[in-house]
Amino acid sequence: MRTPLVVGNWKMHGTVAEARVLATGLRDGLKRPRGVHVAVCPPFTALAAVSEILAGSPIQLGAQNCHHEPAGAPMLAELGCRWILAGHSERRKEMGESDEQIKLKVRAILSHDLTPVLCVGETADERRQGLTFTTVEGQLRAGLAGLSADQIAKTVLAYEPVWAIGTGVNATPGQAAEVQGYLRGLLSELASKEIAQTVRILYGGSVKAENAEALMAEPEVDGALVGGASLNAQGFIGIVRKAARIGTAAKE
Fold first, then answer.
1. 3-state DSSP call for residue 120?
2. How far apart are CA 193 and CA 50, in angstroms?
């Protein structure tokens, strides 16, 4: 049984003082979440401050990026990070990150017993041209290249269609489930059918309280990578609680 995971990606939003307020609101509002795992990825400038606030809380700390050189991941681990995003579309586009760089980051993250959240997704043009599956397959194969089946079992995937990120237009539950089912099939090939059934695949792209439940109700959608909606404590808590209800019901 895959426990839902909800990750808040704060991107480049908030001063350290604002991050403290947001983290405090989340900590106080999510004291004992059941049936769901929760993590937040603040800006690098706020990692230390948020780590202090979340210490002892069930909310885990994540980072938005990690350098592939040996010193990168240990610095984040020292701050308390357990999750690290790799291959987010905005870094692929704005920073020119290549599949090769992302592969090295995934390896570095795993080598320090941290969990990579490997992001894949197609652009609007690629979807119009019928290249969705080709694009996400290429990104997945490249990001996991050279990993053992056991290492693949320790990863999390996030399907984030580029055309849905920050646009307010999310994939329908059916669209998300179709692509995520395809990704799970690829994991069966790259690792095994058994491992593929244990790897969590999140959906990201304009996730908010109004659409989160319908998306996460799909059996292939194991939670959410939340952008803008994670900047509001009550809104994010609402998404987490919906994921918790789905996770708890699935186990009954």
1. strand
2. 38
> Considering just the CA atoms, what is the radius of gyration of the chain in Å?
17
Is position 112 annotated as part of the catalytic site? Answer: no
pLDDT tens digit sequence for 51-62: 999 999 999 999
Q: Are 121 and 205 in contact (CB under 8 A)?
A: yes
Model pLDDT for residues 205-226, shown as the tens digit of each residue: 999 999 999 999 999 999 999 9
Tokens of 71: 């010193």
Written as one letter, the residue type at 220 is E
Sign of CA pseudo-dihedral 93, 43, 173, 35? positive
Q: Which residues of 160-196 are buried (b: 16+ CB within 10 A; e: fewer)?
A: bbbbbbeeeebbebebbbbbbebbbebbeebbeeebb
Q: Considering 97, 126, 160, 220, which one is annotated as catalytic?
A: 160
Q: How far apart are CA 141 and CA 183, in angstroms?
A: 10
SS3 track for 230-250: HHCHHHHHHHHHHHHHHHHHH
- pTM of the predicted structure, to 2 decimals: 0.96
The one catalytic residue in 37, 88, 97, 220 is 88
Helix axes 16-29, 233-251, angle to 10 degrees: 40
94 is catalytic: no
d(CA 102, CA 147): 13
Bridge partners for 83 per DSSP: 62, 115
